[in-house]
Amino acid sequence: MSKIRKIGIITGGGDCSGLNAVINGITKTAVNKYGVEVVGFTRGYSGLYKNDYRPLGLRSVSGIMHEGGTILKSSNKDNLFDYPVMKEDGTVEYKDVSDQAIKNLEYLGVDALIVMGGDGTLTSARDFYRKGLPVVGVPKTIDNDLPATDVTFGYNTSLETITDALDKIHTTAYSHDRVMVVEVMGRHTGWLALEGGLAGSADVILIPEIPYDINKIVEKVRQRDAFGRNFSIIVISEGAKPKGGDVTVREHVEDSADSVRLGGVGKILTDQLQELIPEHEVRYTNLAYIQRGGITSQFDRALGLLFGVNAVDLLMNGGAGRMVQLRGRKISSIPLEDVVGGGEMGETSTGGGKQVDPEGQYVQAAKSIGITFGE
Ligand code: F6P
Known about the structure:
CATH class of the largest domain: Alpha Beta
Structural class: alpha/beta
CATH architecture of the largest domain: 3-Layer(aba) Sandwich
Distance between the termini: 59 Å
Number of domains: 2
Shape: elongated
Bound molecules: 6-O-phosphono-beta-D-fructofuranose
Oligomer: single chain
Helix content: 25-40%
Order of helices and strands: EHEHEEEHEHEHEHEHEEEHEHEEHH
Number of helices: 11
Largest sheet: 7 strands, mixed
Strand content: 15-25%
Radius of gyration: 22 Å
């Protein structure tokens, strides 16, 4: 029999669709199946440190499945193992405050944690497990860049948003004979651009894994003009880079596990293209945060729910220290030690992670139907 009587939940890192489905699955399974209480900490690990939490019951998670974001709020800062603490003289020093978090958990009678997040959040989950706390991880990101799971929830909803946006942008592109540059998220991987661009009938897809040559893009636009299609849609990942060039950094967010925020490469490309193809109006749209919000897709609701239910089952049946994952059409699990901090998915924050294979089926299929990657 498990000694776990009360589970704490944390949502860390950037929000995405499906988090509420996981919270729903965890809470209902804990209460209905195991008779275990649940509390949700607010704003990621910050709530654990500041003892900011709310009890979660069947009523509080009712009706949240479809909602994007997280009812618990999130934070992509607040590493409690390296936390900024204000000293008396007003200066800030970074300290390990994880013992305070453990004390808070003891005070609340919380015996175990289920943590939803990406690399940074799950690294802390691993570190709390190393301190003796039973922890189960749930992988999350719209970027789909985590090798330790085939797919993450949030990704599918983002793809739906990108596809819908491209459908809408097509009408203006056609009506005005324009070249439309559409920038999408994905950090250092091109999944969102590739799958979204394919579904949304992009003519050019630019991804981090295949550095581009702007002349090849111009060539493609001119080919389409000659063919009587006087408009073109270019989908570009925020992490795309020209051949021999580097990524475009939007800003640095201090205290974040990965401080680099990408963005703006689409604007640079737009300005350069406008010079090279003055016969067209070239317009730039950055889909930005609309890719993270909105109503959660059926796929992400189902995956989130399955992850939530299985995370509780794992925790209650001796599986602490592991992370749920999707392999094929089955939920299984993998040790947290193997997925973070240099493990199977530990390289995501430094630009590694699950990359698009330039020789893989998706890229090859795209090429077969005439899409160019600017090579
Ligand atoms: O990892 C998810 C993601 O949305 C990336 O695609 C994007 O680069 C980043 O987060 C944006 O982070 P922030 O919310 O800090 O701007």
